[in-house]
Design brief:
heterodimer; A: mainly alpha; Arc Repressor Mutant, subunit A; 4 helices; elongated; B: mainly alpha; Rna Polymerase Sigma Factor, Chain: A; 2 domains; about 0% strand
Chain lengths: ~80, ~220
Amino acid sequence: MTESNERITCQELTELVNDYIEGTLSSHETALFEQHLNFCDGCDWYVDQMRATIATVGRIEEEDVPTDVRDKLLAAFRDRNRT
Amino acid sequence: MPDVTLESPDPAAAELELVERLRAGDEAAFEALVARHYGTMLAVAQTYVKDRAVAEEVVQEAWLGVINGLDRFEGRSSLKTWIVSILVNQAKTRGVREARSVPFSSLAPEGDEPAVDPDRFRGREESYAGHWRAFPGNWGRSAAAAVQDRETLRVVMRAIAELPATQQTVIRMRDVEGYSSEEVCTALDVSEANQRVLLHRARSRVRAALEGHFDD
């Protein structure tokens, strides 16, 4: 139990959220962060939004490679295997 | 599609298998590998050479280096780390030659960039200073569904494409390609603190773009 008058604001939380998700906050900061979440739906949703953002970014798999680039690289790859 | 995500039960074994396929001349495996890494490589190259066309050339030259070096790859680092190290060398050389070299310190985050528009919080003179004026939306279950949605994915890809090259590089390496923060720091020679700030800013901007998309 953290019993202190120390608090973080919503604005501060939005700057700490990625360190929280990354697990790089100190245990003291983590306690303050979670204490805030217990009483603030807005920030709870904000953290969820950030997690959903990361999950969506993680779904990017492949991107278009310009056709001429792809053809050129494939040709070089074939050449390698011929020698 | 060949498995080049390297996320199978034993990543090291899967990677060795992929390298064997490449050495044996498996074109589908090579094509998938290029598609998988192209966007990130372009972003990395653009942190060294500003000109997009030159950055594209650098990426192509790096791939030629990968093709030629396949037999020398010993698996001391992961394949993607090895590919990026070839790219970074190529980009540095080219950056110097073009005299457009961006100093490495430019990977350091510039200036102040709040994660959320400060106007959305109550001001210093007000009660509850620093607290939301209006809560951000509860995406709730719609978020889980949206993550699967193609249009949402396009919004995210567009938002990433608009990021500064440094932020783009870090979010792609970390969240698209699954590098650890240590791997990013080593590959780009950037400090852990800077890597964290760049990732935070990139994710915050992409979140804001998604918020705009959901609020529409």
